[in-house]
Batch of 2 targets.
Target 1
Amino acid sequence: MRKHMILLSLFVFTSLVFSIGCQRNVDTAVPYETLEENGEEAKMSEVAWELGITAKNYPRIDGSTSTLPLVQQIYKAMFTSQDNSWINLPQSASKTVPSYEKLIKNEADMILVPYASQDVLERAENAGVELEFSPISLEALIFITSIDNSTQNITEEQVRKIYIDYGINNWRELGGPDKELVPMCRNADSGSQSQLDNLVLKGESMHRKIKNNYVELTMDGLLEQVAFYHNVNKKDCFGLGYTLYYYLQNISEVTGIDNRLKVLDYEGISATPETIADGSYPLSSSYYAVIRKDLPKEHSARALIKWLYSEAANDCISRSGLTPIKH
């Protein structure tokens, strides 16, 4: 009897210890970086191992709002998860210009962003930092209005006259209805604003009345403003805005906002995956993996960029909702 009691006590004690240990593993979200002495490197994927990337040397990656899905897909490609839950999966982005600022200050190793504005390039030069750009996926700047607007096309001359001179205030001048044209814009540190500056305004300042009265701080907020401005404000008008093509495609899968928006042709050419890929759409552009040129050659961020240029990374880029560039 005493022997049976001892065995029973040992069984209960062992079960209790095992239960506590399992509970600790399940409930305690320990960052990968703190697990190095406990075999955390087993959590790296086979791809990461081949690239020489570990939890300890995984690069600090940031970017624009529109590239956050790609930042997340890269993370998932480098780390493994048995139940598709990554405890350190990036959940936010610093946005375009703040990401560049972090890179210039050496607070990030790599950023995924549209090409830098002239202002950002000057900041880097003044800080003595040279940036290195690697195009990784396609993108394009597009102009949008309400689906109820009959206007079909806009030209570079018209965009510049609207946003620089505040010189067009009726859609009739664009071949549309006799309604007020309300030009809306993004904040200066956004990716779409950088693209407007680079591709259309070309260094000239936007009119202060637009910046002071019609600025929207978020990408999805601008889409909603353009789609519903005339309804909300009960005015005989339609809004004009701009965004990024693939961002609109991706967010529309979630919100359906594209059903309330019209993408205007630009210089008579429609933005499509085909015209963006072959460059016939005039405002075709790219997302870039950007690093400091002085980053060591053996740095893991350089290994990631080399991988992003490979055929093997195409699925990762596509899963983020972007289109890989054929290198």
Note: The chain is about 40% helix and 20% strand.
Target 2
Amino acid sequence: MNREAPGESSRRIKSYVLRAGRMSDAQKRSYENLKDNFCIPFSETMLNPETLFGNKHPLTIEIGFGMGIATAMIAEANPEKNYLGLEVHRPGIGRLLWEIEQRKISNIRIVEHDAVEVLEKMISADSVEAFHIFFPDPWPKKRHHKRRLVKRPFNRLLAEKLIPGGYIYFVTDWADYGDWALSELTATPEIYNQYEGFAPRQEWRPETKFESKGIAKQHEVRELLFRKK
């Protein structure tokens, strides 16, 4: 697959804008008290999931987990799997850490860093069972489409990290982004669409408050499930 030239990561157009969101007292407390237990510092050393989690359970990576409530619910319901959340917004990390403590979850770890760089530097090829990308920023204005996360060559990076048969599960409530993602994923040769067009809702995925608000505004939720060949 295509590799970035030295220094290109720093020049790359990022799919997010780092906003200075306000943290609640509970989020601050959870972040300060729990980050050393569940947050992994970014480094240029490949992670060993077995060492990180203390078991050989399959690994799911969620990119941009927002406030992390759905992440916590999925991990709590699937203790036989490990979950690595990638997020740059600290209030969401604080909220997920709060959820981890309240639910007594042990199968989640977090990296507070840009997902592309984490995948490039810390995740080995053929090591991930699944990628979850739920409601990423749609960047609706045409001039901002270049900021969208799900596009080539990033899709090929995801495919490289998946085990054979592993999947990418993408959900958006922005119809245009759904069409865009369908086109970009279909054009990624290492993966194939498990369904004809958009996927049916996967019943195990919890509905979030964000999703509920989108549905109330009559947004059409579109889901895609692609697997590595």
Note: The first strand starts at residue 59 and ends at 63.
